[in-house]
Design goal:
Elements lengths: L2 E5 L24 H11 L1 E5 L4 H11 L5 E3 L13 E4 L7 E3 L9 H7 L9 E3 L2 E3 L10
Parallel strand pairs: 1-2, 1-5, 2-4, 3-4
Antiparallel strand pairs: 6-7
Length: 141
Amino acid sequence: MKTVSIDFDGVIHAYSQGWQDGSCYDGPMPGAIDGIKALLSDYAVFILSTRDPNQIIEWFGKHAPEIPCGPIEDEEKFWNKQGILGVTNRKLAAMVYIDDRAFVFTDWKNTMRWRDHFAVYPMTKIAGHQGARMVDLTNQP
């Protein structure tokens, strides 16, 4: 089974004000619920977040009760259940990680060219929410 991992804040939960008091104060990002439903029909999908999984499950109960979801137990090393959205705060194996703050690794030379920008990299305002801006530095000196 091919597995997809999705970040919660800024990818599913709109997170328009950044971290506040730890609450999930916003609804979903535009297209998030339909996107997750589509992915669940073809892949095993789980949410990876630093939040308590139960907080995310509660949010889904309010904003997308039609999506079955539950916590991934600590003894589970992989998520291979299609049709059920797993939720964890542990990084499990996946073929792709969907995250608004990801840096796409190509090689160390390119990574080291980009390192001076890490301080400003993750918090660029895009379309009313905070997210990362991808810049390809592969052909830069």
